[in-house]
Specification:
This protein is α/β, with parallel strands linked by helices. It has 2 domains: 4-167, 3-Layer(aba) Sandwich (Rossmann fold), CATH 3.40.50; 187-292, K homology (KH) domain (GMP Synthetase, Chain A, domain 3), CATH 3.30.300.20. The chain is built from 9 helices and 9 strands.
Length: 297
């Protein structure tokens, strides 16, 4: 049997569970997760390899109306991924009951592409059978889908059938990545994202979206199995800096402690993590800062 390989774009509006689905399918924490929308800022590739195939899932930023250069970058990355794929997973929520404004915008984009589109109706564990049926019926009347799969990405319900469906969409090809790889993200980027995830989880709504993380040092010690990581957290206001640091540094310590635990679990060795906070007003519209953070080529 010929080996098959290819790319599957995962799209949808913010916070529908795209990252949770990808982490469930790979069995690894590839994409960071929070309850806040627009958590994913860049295209993250997750890799599923077996004896027959290599499926490369592209976790894209949620498509939304951008309000900054960062937002424009995020939406462009999501749209570009559609035409660079062999198939597309369009994720919606079971309780949607039909396409809203953003979903309708995405559907218009999907009409113009050649790759087959799979509708994945997520969070079925949080909706009634009637709601799931109405959602599937309404979305299916707006676009002809290759397959429709109701799931719960969080619980893993019905997600096991997706790899088989995706495999059929792939052309014969080479193995793009080593069989043991589960993401193409550099370790520096993974570290930055883990730190940003903790900021999203711990701080209130208006602050996390104004923060970015730059890894200024990532060093494997030669004499010991320890990784040294220095990171700078950028925020847009002096008042936000104080909140991120917290009383006597308590919040920054909590962010660091939680991020360190995840990084040590990922890398399998102790991590010495140091964090700093700097104010960069309106950094989300600064091409220089966006490039430093990996949000621009």
């Amino acid at each position: 049997m010929a080996f098959k390989s290819g790319f599957i774009a995962v799209v949808g509006r913010p916070n529908v569970g795209k990252s949770t689905l990808i982490n469930t399918l790979t069995g690894k924490k590839v994409s960071i997760i929070s309850a806040k929308p627009q958590t994913t800022r860049n295209t993250v590739r997750a890799i599923i390899t077996d004896a027959e195939s290599q499926i490369i899932l592209m976790d894209t930023p949620g498509i939304h109306k951008p309000k900054s250069k960062l937002g424009e970058f995020m939406v462009k990355r999501a749209i570009d991924s559609l035409n660079d794929s062999d198939g597309v997973i369009f994720v919606v929520e079971a309780s949607d009951l039909g396409p809203g404004k953003t979903d309708s915008m995405i559907i218009e984009r999907l009409r113009d592409i050649k790759p087959p589109v799979i509708l994945v109706v997520n969070k079925c564990d949080q909706a009634s059978e009637e709601q799931v049926f109405r959602t599937i019926t309404s979305f299916s009347s707006s676009l002809k889908f290759h397959e429709v799969v109701p799931i719960s990405a969080l619980n893993g319900d019905n997600t096991d059938i997706l790899p088989g469906i995706l495999r059929k969409l792939l052309p014969e090809g080479v193995m793009y990545f080593d069989g043991d790889d589960y993401t193409d993200q550099p370790e520096r980027m993974v570290a930055a994202e883990y730190i940003r995830e903790k900021i999203l989880q711990l701080l209130r709504d208006e602050i996390p979206h104004g923060t970015g993380v730059e890894i200024t040092l990532f060093h494997d010690r030669e004499d010991k199995d320890i990784i040294d990581i220095d990171a700078t957290i950028y925020c847009e206001r002096k008042s936000h800096k104080g909140i991120i640091i917290g009383n006597k540094g308590s919040m920054l310590k909590k962010i660091g402690s939680m991020a360190r635990a995840d990084l040590e679990a990922l890398f399998g060795v102790p991590v010495f993590l140091q964090l700093w906070v700097k104010v960069k007003e309106d950094w989300r519209n600064s091409n220089t800062v966006l490039k430093d953070l990996g949000y621009r080529e």
